[in-house]
Amino acid sequence: MSEATAVATAPVATDPSLPFSQEVPGAVIGEWAADSDKALFVAPDKLLPLLTHLRDREGYDFLSSVTCVDYSAYKGKARAGISERFDVVYHIYSTRQGGGPVRLHVRVPESETVPSATSVYPGANLQEREVWDLYGVKFEGHPNLRRVLTWEGFHGHPLRKDWKEAYFEEEAKPFKSRHPEGGYKWHEDKLPWGDNNTYPQNWDPDSWSEPVTYVPVSQAPSDHHAYGELDTQSIVVNLGPHHPSTHGVFRMLTRIEGETILALEPEMGYLHRNHEKIGERNAWLMNMPFTDRLDYINSMSNNLGYALAVEKLLGIEVPERAQYIRVIMAELTRVINHTWSIGFILNDLGALQTPALYAIEEREMILDLFEEISGARLMCNYMRFGGVVRDLTPGWEERAKYLVHDRLPRALDQLDDLLSGNEIVKARGRGVGYLSAQDLIALSVSGPMIRAAGLAYDIRKAEPYCIYDRFDFDIPTLPESDIYARYYIRLLEARESIKILKQALRDIPPGEVNAYASATLNQGFGTIMGGKGGYNFRPKEGEAYARIEAPKGELGYYVVSDNKANAYRYHVRSPSYINLNALGPMSVGYKVADAVVILGAIDIVLGEVDR
Amino acid sequence: MDWLNLLVIPIIRSVVIIVVLLTGFAYLTWYERKLLARFHVRYGPNRAGPKGLLQPIADAVKAVFKEEIIPGHVDKVVYLLAPALALAPALLIWAVIPLGKDFPAVADVPIGFLWILAIAGVESYGVILAGWSSNNNYSLLGALRSSAQMISYEIPLGLFLVSILLLAGDFSLVNLVEAPRAWWEWLWLWIMFPLFFICILAETNRSPFDLPETENELVAGFQTEYGGIKFALFFMAEYISMITTSAIMATLFFGGYALPFGIGSDILPILGPFILAGKVIVLLFLFIWVRASLGRPRYDQLMGFAWRTLLPISLGYMIITALLTVFFK
Amino acid sequence: MPELPIPIPPLPTLHESVFMAIALLTVVGAFLVVAARNLFHNALGLALTFFGVAGVYFVAEAEFVGVAQVLVYVGAISTLITFAIMLTRGMMYGATSPLNRQAGTAAIIAATVFVVMAGLLGSLPWPVAEEPIVDGQIVIANLGVGFVTEFVVAFLLLAVLLLVALAGAIVLAQDRK
User: Fold this and answer.
1) Interchain contact, B151 vs C79, CB within 8 Å
2) Assuming Cys at both sites, which of A323, A340, A406, A529 could form a disulfide with A537, CB separation 3.0 to 4.6 Å?
């Protein structure tokens, strides 16, 4: 592992054994050989040529994740002798070949910038903004490098290791009981507004206003005249925040002319709680229930993704029965999510909640099953590293079989009958919100949306995790890529999930449900975890990225360990957030009323968007 | 006697009708909520009184006792005038709706038909005034949509009414109910009923044509700045409009206060209002059924439907009706 | 009862008092049209005037004309005007002056027209109906007969005009591919 800065300044001295040394000389300056995924260190100035090469020649067209790690507090051996503070990590996949990622690391000192990947992968947009927001790493050439999750007036970059949360992380905590005679000072009292916030110096909240440099105003075509020679005027309208049907506190900044959208930009972060910062403070296992809170409709899939990432780090084998249980839970969750989203797409179309309530009725049946095994309907906290927390209760399988064989197929057929042929649904959905499959992939969109655009890309097939390679199921695709297709693809996917569920419930073997419960495995597991069972353990140094096909798209977890009881870095690649890249391009040219439905068809959950 | 006949008796009749309508409005909300709940597979209001029957009263008390808020940026006179103007037309139409053979509503004026058309034209004022005076983008857009929608759908509605008029050959609604009709006349009328009902849905701003108040993109449309009793007045206007238009449809298409084949009308003329009420309740069920079942078309689709589909159909229907009237009556 | 030097005017009958109220409303509306400083209020005043005129027709037992007045002037024309004003959003604030440089000329012309009309109407020998019209139906029927006999050319021309307008609306609404 050589010095990135040295290579950047020195003339190209390429080690011919490194990958891509022929195609893009000097781009790759090192390789993390120990890692299972291909992990390459890249010189910052050669990043864009390498990305272009990967996209155009190697078929790596899908930029899954862009994130950053602040290594300033890292004590492990892996970073010995490396001076750069930040490490920007890219995971790039190929939707055509499937398989694992190319992982690129770009190391930068605090003072330097990284070239923005948006010119090659437009989907880097929101993720680079997030990195800028939370780490303060600047991306050169990014069209709209503003804060995205925190507000414009926020002081500092909260995911940096030296950022102290006001009051909670101050050097000395002024507990009243320890200072009976006073002598302490509340941090809040030092602040001008008595809040739990810090502000930049010389900052006056009364005179401050959010800088209006947003894309819709600056990039909207000003000479657009829909009505011939008539001189018309476009106005900026805020849809939201906290709009009754925008699925939560979310804002769409739109520039409209008449009712036609000229430009639209999503504004989020109203629910931001810095999930990742809290995740780095928690012990590994403590994050498990915390993942429930991301996409609170699909807590089981969130659990699964995180468990897979940490298991990759630990190298644990999951027992057979637990694998089956995991698949069953993940697919039940998918059915829940898809019926729910079908209902709410219809809600956004103005159908007075009738379809939504019909869909939710089925969801309740599945939640009953979840409650029975996990004790909770919404926040299940059911998966563990090495398996699941407890076995299925007696009779659970029979009840699940009734649902899967009898009730759910009927419910899906009913939704299909009632909704698919409806003239209003067709009139509102057909041809609205079109974006080609290429555009969607370039914008890093994943999940049902790209399958509704005719691209059969599903991680369960492309890079099978758990035991998905054992089941017989199809990837349904539709060519239209409009709202109606996005509605209908969810129905088809729910049917495929039921197909998987039938097989899984048929084949599920008896046995242990977690690795640390098994006598033979416990020995090995105990060594990994320092002999402390499944609760507290220190994974060896390293990084891992695991992704699953969550109902909303590709859900990825990137974790870095420095052999401590908590994660050094814990990053969630949330599909809701990254799919919002496509909201603007999808809505342009359609009506305001369509934007609401287009958003509904993306199917976001704000808990996952804002994290 | 002059004063008595011209003033006192009509006023008493009007007051009775208004009281009945307001009660009807209150229980229409209950009816709708209960029905919607059943469509949604849930219970609906069931706390206030048996079967939630006191719910409308509780709602009314709440609306009345809410703090009156007039936003600072509104045009006060127009802002306060708007809810009243929204409600008035819905009540005014009842002046001509016949409740029985010897028991006309307020007046059996010879121009009953035209009265309905004229008042329907005035109905959009409440919405326009509310939207403009609220001084709010959402309200304005909602009001623009609403008035454009109402005016557009008034044209096919008017043409359909003219067709019915051609068949009836009389401006009076009492005569319309009393006059005997041939079977093909009924058939021809009922063919048109679904289209007429669509126009009525648009006129009353009911789902799926509730675009003026789409909560999805316009918050609450023209009502955004209204609260408390002023909002309740708009609400009332919408629901009384529903009752009124149901009564109109019952009168025009389903024999109004009379039972089919003239059963019982001579024996018990006092039954007229109750028979009409029964028909109104059935028609109100249609409104609610549609609301629970359908999504909302987009605004341009809605307007396109009025101008591209309904207008040619209504014109053609009128011409054919005229020919039928000339050759068969 | 001794005769007073000035005869006391008789109490107005019901008809007269209703007429007066409506006339007052009409005049107030007309005044609003020219005097209100907000364009939207002007338009509302116009609608009020139209309504008042319709009321006058009703008092005169010409229900058909009255309803037609409401239908056409209040329901359609005034709505169109308010619509146009609503689209000029800037009018909400800033009162506009009701006067411009032609105000004086306009006042003189209006006064002249008023004097001439008042004199003319006052001096006309109005025909007085022998008995009140009881059945409006016959009047409307007569009106209809008049349309298809005496005024058939004008009626047909208007009908053609309206039909052309309707057809034009349908054509305009079609998608232009």
Assistant:
1) yes
2) A529
Four-point Cα dihedral B17, B21, B24, B26, nearest 10 = -140
* DSSP-assigned letter for residue A591: B
Nearest to B289 by CA among A229, A359, A352: A352
Range of the domain at B272: 71-328
Instruction: Quote the CA–CA distance of B234 and B254 in Å, as a whole number.
Output: 29
The per-residue pLDDT for range A21-79, each reduced to its tens digit, is 677 777 777 776 565 667 788 888 888 888 888 888 888 888 888 998 888 888 777 66
* Among A464, A460, A470, CA closest to A324: A470
Furthest-apart CA pair in chain C: how many Å? 88
Q: pTM higher than 0.80, yes or no?
A: no
3-state helix, strand, coil in chain B (%, to 5): 75, 0, 25
pLDDT at C92 over 60: no
Task: Sort out which chain B residues have CB atoms less than 8 A from C89's CB and list them.
Answer: 140
Q: Which residue carries 């006598």 as its tokens? A: A519
Best of B301, B307, B314 to disrupt the C interface (most C CBs within 10 Å) is: B307
DSSP β-ladder status, A251-257 and A260-267:
antiparallel
Full DSSP string of B156-215: HHHHHHHHHHHHH--S-HHHHHHS---HHHHHHHHHHHHHHHHHHHHHTT-TTS-GGG-H
Rounded CA-CA distance A486/A455 in Å is 13
Contact between C59 and C22 (Cβ < 8 Å): yes
CATH number of A4-140: 3.30.460.80
- CA distance, residue A342 to nearest chain B CA (Å): 13
Q: How many domains does chain B have?
A: 1
Test C86 with B128 for CB contact under 8 angstroms: yes
CA nearest to A592, candidates A220, A257, A215: A257
CATH 1.20.120.1200 fits C9-98, yes or no: yes
- For residue B173, being part of any structural domain is answered with yes
Q: From start to end of A411-503, where are the E strands? A: none
Reported CATH class of domain A275-610: mainly alpha
Look at residues B291, B297, B219 and name the one whose alpha carbon lies nearest to residue A244: B219
Query: How far is Cα A370 from Cα A102, in angstroms, rounded to an integer?
Result: 36
Beta strands in A169-290 (DSSP E): 235-239, 251-257, 260-267
Report the 10 Å Cβ neighbour count for C103. 12
CB-side neighbour CA atoms (13 Å) of B105:
26
Cα A316 from Cα A319, distance rounded (Å): 10
List pLDDT tens digits, range B192-229. Answer: 889 889 888 888 877 777 765 555 556 667 777 787 78
Cα separation of B79 and B135, whole Å? Answer: 10
Q: How many CB atoms lie within 10 A of CB A166?
A: 17
Alpha-carbon distance A158 to B230, whole Å?
48
CA distance A365 to A522: 36
CB of A294 closer than 8 Å to CB of A574: yes
Closest by Cβ to A424, choosing from B36, B214, B294:
B294
**Interface chains of chain B (3 or more CB pairs under 8 Å):** A, C
CA distance B39 to chain C (A): 36
Contact B256/B278 with Cβ under 8 angstroms?
no
Contact B39 A245 (CB under 8 A): no
Q: Nearest to residue A314, comparing CAs of A26, A58, A546?
A: A546
Whether chain B has a CB inside 8 Å of the CB on A427: the answer is yes
Can you tell me the distance from the alpha carbon of A601 to that of A486, in angstroms, rounded to the nearest whole number?
A: 6
**B15 Cβ contact list (under 8 Å, min separation 6):** none
CA distance B273 to chain A (A): 32
Q: Boundaries of CATH 3.30.460.80 in chain A?
A: 4-140
Q: Where in chain A is the domain with CATH 1.10.645.10?
A: 275-610
